[in-house]
């Protein structure tokens, strides 16, 4: 996967907005961290991409047309239709390896920019958390626990796509009730 395919800004040119004491930077985080001095960030809180594929042009076009791709059938309840979310269950073995590679590079860079003893808080879900956690531990972070976000999805999340009209009451996944958000600390750097 080309780096800028997953980027928040395909031009890769950082755009900066100052809001009070905060500075918001729209950039590829990998490029941004490569350019930061070591030990210059005190903490990282992130809701990272777990698909990569859904941020590519092909999948974004399928989202807009409402047909095919990685997208779930949008949940509907009481006449209110929600935005379609990506299905993590469609990740192939190759794509999971690509995710592991992304988080391996990400974790090494976070370790570089973070002060020793700095914390990292990563939003995740039970289907994909290991794809981020294992590279974090391999890079030299210590897992300090998980904070559980209690959620109640409308149903299991996945109807059997393309057979959902024939089997409207069937769900192919257990209904989600919690999300683990990983909490890590950087070990002393050797
Ligand atoms: C799971 S979404 C975060 C959603 C956000 N928490 C919200 O509630 O709207 C992951 C985000 O990471 C961004 N992203 C993907 N690759 C990136 C990269 N290399 N650098 C910076 N942002 C990236 C995507 O554009 C996407 O907005």
Give a short overview:
With 190 residues, the protein is of the alpha+beta class. It is 25% helix and 25% strand. The radius of gyration is 18 Å and the shape is globular.
Could you characterize what this model shows?
By secondary structure, the chain is an alpha+beta fold. It has a single domain (3-56, 92-186), classed as Vaccinia Virus protein VP39 (Rossmann fold, 3-Layer(aba) Sandwich). It has four helices and eight strands; from the N terminus they run ββαβαββαβαββ. A hairpin with a 2-residue loop joins strand 4 (76-77) and strand 5. It is globular and about 60 Å long. Bound molecules: S-adenosylmethionine (SAM). S-adenosylmethionine is lined by residues 6-8, 28-30, 47-49, 55.
Proportion of residues in extended strands: 25-35%
Radius of gyration: 18 Å
The number of domains is: 1
As for the CATH topology, it is Rossmann fold
Annotated CATH architecture: 3-Layer(aba) Sandwich
- Between the first and last Cα atoms, what is the distance in angstroms? 32 Å
Low-confidence stretches: 1-10
Largest sheet: 4 strands, mixed
Structural class of the helix and strand makeup? alpha+beta
Tally of alpha and pi helices: 4
The amount of helix comes to 25-40%
CATH class: Alpha Beta
Per the principal axes of the C-alpha atoms, what is the gross shape? globular
Can you write the helix and strand succession as a string?
A: EEHEHEEHEHEE
Number of strands: 8
Spatial sequence of strands, sheet with the most strands: 3-6-8-7
Provide the list of bound ligands, each named once.
S-adenosylmethionine
